[in-house]
Amino acid sequence: MSQWLSEVIAEGQRQTDWLAGHRQQATEALANIKWPVRRQEAWRFTPLLPVEKRSVSLAAAVEQHGSAPVIDGLNAYSVSFAGNKLVAQQGSVPAGLTFTLFSNANTEQQATIKALLSQVKPSHHLFGQVNDALMTEGVYIHVPANTVIDTPIRLSQLAASVGDQHLRVLVHVESGAKVAVIEDGFGDADSLNTFVSEYVLDAQAQLEHYRFAMYTQQAMHVGSCHFKVGEKAQLTSNIVGYGSVLSRLDVDVEYTGEFANANVNAIYLLAEGELFDLHSTIEHAVPNCTTEENARGIVGDRAKAVFNGRIHIHRNAQKTLAELNNRNLLLSRRAIINTKPELEIYADDVRCAHGATVAEIEEKALYYLLTRGISRSQALIMLNFGFIQELITQIPNTAISDWLLHSLRERFVSMEVK
Questions:
Q1: pTM of the complete model
Q2: Could you tell me what percent of the chain has a pLDDT over 70?
Q3: Which residue, 203, 276, 317, 403, has most beta carbons within 10 Å?
């Protein structure tokens, strides 16, 4: 066991709030977990040395915490967290929706949260267990049955101070309800965060989900998103990841009812020397469900990306439709992508496909644009946009898609190989 993990266990055992019982279960589990090494397949390409070198120290609230980027045209209820505290909010909680901070939960709300907490997240995720042990603030969102929430909920975590941040999000969308939730993270401070979110979708619920892990430089991110999708429920998830000294996102989707559908799109963009690791697992445990997952990455000079996508078709999951694709574009011969799409099928009446591609910018296309008087920087932006724009245009919220196009354009400039 690493010294850092020993400190996590000790810190979790010192906490005495209303989640103490939950923390105790997590620390007991952590005591029996072997620290990941590169011989383990799940961490083969993502060394945890930057974490091992750290000491556990919770980030303190800071006055100069910065702010999340403004998304023009987005009418959302927005809250921001920095230094493990709520530091800003904008707008009002939409009518019909319950929004509760863990720190403000009354006795009844505490009982509800404890009943749902960690019921979606698989127990094998090391940093999910770390979040269980050390979470210092959380958000519980409840959408009652048949309630349509037109105002998106935006939850931002800002890596604005040195130390560790452990935010938790718990969302319950009841039968026939609909909501959009945006989770985003920004900053470059020397920090570590384990942003974990759990979603329960009851029958015929609809969730429009976004996760923007836009941490850079020294901001380490080892977060996760987990979903349980009920009968005839619909999940759309859009993920954007940047790279840093260590950035990893685990995504888990489990179907719990028939005729449900999940559409997961992911984009990752790595500037020079950065690392980003995306692991996804889709559990088709019941029949007649549909999954479409597309991940596209652009990897800059000396950067390293990891994609491991797994779709598991259980024995009883007949009539499953599932497709998984990963496409990657390398901006340099020194860029690295380790991609591993997987299909594990135990049913015999299914339609499934998976694939992966790795390519470089086509020299003929680049030369064509350069001969038309377009600068190399602008030519690369144009070609890169063509590679990922298809996924961005599928985003149902135009304010978010427009903001992403602008943000990614700026990001490409920093990724260009000079």
A1: 0.94
A2: 96
A3: 276
